[in-house]
Amino acid sequence: MKKIKLISAILTVLMLSEMFSVSSLCSAKMTKKQKKEILYINMADDFLKENQYDNAIECYNKIIEINPNSSEAYSKRGNVRYLQGKYQDAVSDYTKALEITPDKTNLYYNRGLARTKLKEYDEVLEDFTKELEINSENTHAYLNRGMTEILLKKYDEAIEDFTKLISLDSENEMAYYNRAIAKRNQGDYQGAIEDYNIVLDLNPSNIDAYINRGGAEYYLKDYKSAIRDYSKVIETQKASKKSYFNRGLAYFGAEKYEEAIEDFTKVIMLSPKNDSAYYNRGLAEEKLGNNVSAIDDYAKAIELKPEDAQYYYTKGALISRIDGDLEQAISDLNYAIKLDGNDSEKYLTRAIIFCKQKNYLIALDDLNIAIKLDPENSTAKELRSYAIKSLADVDDQIKGNK
Questions:
Q1: Of 66, 90, 218, 397, which alpha carbon lies 20 to 30 A from 38's?
Q2: pTM of the full predicted structure?
Q3: What average pLDDT score do residues 84-88 get?
Q4: Last residue within a domain, chosen from 135, 152, 169
Q5: Any idea what DSSP says for residue 359?
Q6: Which of 152, 187, 214 is the last residue of a domain?
């Protein structure tokens, strides 16, 4: 089962509603420069309301010319540049604002958001940490630092941040959701399920929570629950290829092979070039004894993805077990080994075919490799003993005929 991607909840709370300290200017008689500054402030606000970002930036440029120490002008220009997707420029503006007002709230946070877009994750952690030193109750900073820690595979730290956030906001859906992701990545599937349960209590419409909870249930082999969750998703998203595929895997795990075939067939209808759907449908067909259909599906999977060693191996192994075209089976195993020669089972399976053909000497070569790769492979050892004995019997027969 493919892992579900982490759903980003990076917030873009850029504090665009921040106001300059106009009141302090009005408390005393304003200079000509101060009047100009207020004029550009008002103009910038109007441009922002109309999403005219370039014009707003021009206003902030004028403010900075008038007052080079205007931290808020740099900060708000950084916000606009962030919205424009100019993340490096935004970082530069936030950095300049921090040089002027190093203890101002939200500046480190906003710079952290911009650095997230640049994938500078170590620096992102530093910024969110500094923000929390200034404002220890900034829930957005806890959430984003936790998700950054997930990206860096620092799952313990992420769980700690999400737990702290929950202590500040017990109904924060994204805190539970992302803590579940961290737990799942640690292999704590039951803990993840418990968090997804809370998410769904808070928001029964969170489809991603159903998807992820289904994945955790699958790993715990709670196939019935996984089927229930994927079915819930399919009720909402009729064309959800991933959910049909994942439910097919769950049906397969529950040994409901006909239902699995139906789901994989649905995936194929929605995505005709999905090699994994053909392959897994083949596995289900094989379980039902529909060997011809299974071989056809394996062949289609190979056609779609000819570089997958497992597809060749599975097809060749099935042909061998049903005593089909053994030369075709050998050809499949040859390709499988060419693509991945580090699996003892591939050599063992090919050796079994050679033994069926009474090619014991060639079989011994494969069995020796299989045992070298897996010294504990008892089947390979037993077959090697059989091949050696059979080879000796053939020699005796040849000598007797002479």
A1: 90
A2: 0.83
A3: 97
A4: 152
A5: -
A6: 152
Q: What is the mean pLDDT of residues 20-26?
A: 40
Nearest to 217 by CA among 242, 189, 244, 243: 189
Residue 342 is assigned to a structural domain of this protein: yes
Domain-embedded: residue 165: no
- Domain holding 21, by residue range, is 1-152
Region 296-322: mean pLDDT is 98
Q: CATH number for the domain including 100?
A: 1.25.40.10
**173 closest CA partner among 162, 182, 160:** 162
Whether residue 8 is predicted with pLDDT greater than 50 in this model: the reply is no
Q: Which long-range contacts (CB under 8 A, 24 or more apart) does 252-256 make?
A: 252/280, 252/283, 252/284, 252/287, 253/218, 253/221, 253/223, 253/226, 254/223, 254/224, 254/227, 255/287
Whether the Cβ atoms of residue 387 and residue 395 lie closer than 8 Å to each other: no
Count of C-beta atoms within a 10 Å radius of residue 355: 19
What's the pLDDT at 237? 86
Report the domain count for the chain.
2
Complete DSSP assignment for 225-289? HHHHHHHHHHHH-TT-HHHHHHHHHHHHHTT-HHHHHHHHHHHHHH-TT-HHHHHHHHHHHHHTT
Domain membership of residue 353 (yes or no) is yes
Q: CB burial class (10 A; 0-12, 13-18, 19+) of residue 338?
A: exposed
In angstroms, what CA-CA distances link 74 with 12, 85, 120, 332? 17, 16, 21, 65
CA–CA separation, 169 and 140 (whole Å): 11
Query: Stretch 242-248: mean pLDDT, rounded?
Result: 97
Q: If we measure between CA atoms, which residue out of 242, 213, 236, 238 comes closest to residue 225?
A: 213
